[in-house]
Amino acid sequence: MKIALVTGASSGMGREFARQIVKLYRNLDEIWLVARRTERLQELEKEFTVPVRIFDGDLNRDYIYERIEKELERKNAEIRILVNSAGCGLSGCFGEREQDTELRMVKLNCQSLTRMLLLCRPFLGRGSRVINLASAAAFAPQPGFAIYSASKSYVYRLSMAIREEWKPAEISVTVVCPGPVDTEFFAHSGELLGKSNKVTKVDPKAVARKALLDAVDRRCVSVYGTSMKVARIAGKLLPDVLSAYLMRKLNGI
Ligand SMILES: NC(=O)c1ccc[n+]([C@@H]2O[C@H](COP(=O)([O-])OP(=O)(O)OC[C@H]3O[C@@H](n4cnc5c(N)ncnc54)[C@H](OP(=O)(O)O)[C@@H]3O)[C@@H](O)[C@H]2O)c1
């Protein structure tokens, strides 16, 4: 059975990925959607003609992985495309929030994404594609968004490394690094600080479309929009200490 698996499918970019995947991948037997909000996933299911399997659960808990793994084995599934979109951010200075809240973010963005990749690897075949959602926040250390940007640097680096490891198996990995996107993300994260808050939020449909096309082309990194492409180049050219200083000024700290 050929499937697509999308985490974070109940809103924002994950939902857009799911919508666009079913149009782009015509030979899927099923699409599997993962997130905590069951009703949202059921609403999305109504839009699709391809059969949907819903995994409603918390990616920071064990049971969801056990359910997914059991189903992958039972259905002898081949994951043609895996999108790891579940993630969250919290703006503000280091230590301003409850420790548990900050640690849940690190767990979701880093550990859960890694666990999903480990779980899915045996079910990815030749020509399968993986899309991991990092962020433009991965390009430089970000005072005022420190833990989030560090967690997304992890996703960025991990994606680059496994992309090379998985090349002989013809599994491609694309890491997506958007700037601010108009989703529910900011309702949970709080608004960005200082001048970062003034950056225009882009449409999640456009980010997902570009990422899927970049994945088709087996590109390593997908960056939507000129300003974020410039941010990527700046992140490569400037020493980290200078980037961190400039980001502190930009964030008004
Ligand atoms: N929006 C931006 O500006 C932006 C920019 C760069 C990168 N990103 C990254 O892009 C990805 C998607 O973000 P988005 O903008 O689409 O945000 P979003 O609209 O808030 O979507 C986040 C998704 O993650 C799911 N999720 C959150 N916690 C979860 C948990 N513990 N277990 C299972 N699912 C969980 C949410 O579903 P439930 O609440 O139903 O569980 C939701 O479907 C994230 O990794 C984010 O870091 C976002």
Brief sketch in words of this structure:
With 253 residues, this protein is α/β, with parallel strands linked by helices. It has 9 helices and 7 strands, in the order βαβαβαβαβαβααβαα.
Q: What's the helix and strand layout?
A:
Blueprint (H helix, E strand, L loop, with lengths): L1 E6 L4 H13 L5 E6 L2 H8 L6 E5 L6 H12 L3 E7 L14 H22 L3 E10 L12 H21 L5 E5 L8 H5 L14 H13 L4 E2 L3 H12 L2 H11 L3
Parallel strand pairs: 1-2, 1-4, 2-3, 4-5, 5-6, 6-7
Helix pairs in contact: 1-7, 4-5
Bound molecules: NADP nicotinamide-adenine-dinucleotide phosphate.
NADP nicotinamide-adenine-dinucleotide phosphate binds next to helix 1 and helix 6.
State the secondary-structure class. Answer: alpha/beta
What number of domains? 1
Number of helices: 9
CATH superfamily: NAD(P)-binding Rossmann-like Domain
Which regions contain 5 or more consecutive residues with pLDDT less than 50? none
Secondary-structure element order, N to C: EHEHEHEHEHEHHEHH
This entry's quaternary arrangement is single chain
User: Percentage of helical residues?
Assistant: 40-55%
Could you please say which CATH topology applies here?
Rossmann fold
**Given this structure, which CATH class is correct?**
Alpha Beta
- End-to-end CA span: 52 Å
Radius of gyration: 18 Å
Q: What's the pLDDT, averaged over the residues?
A: 96
CATH-derived architecture: 3-Layer(aba) Sandwich
Tally the beta strands. Answer: 7
Percent range for β-strand residues: 15-25%
Strand order of the largest sheet: 3-2-1-4-5-6-7
Ligand inventory: NADP nicotinamide-adenine-dinucleotide phosphate
Shape: globular
Q: What kind of sheet is the major sheet?
A: 7 strands, parallel
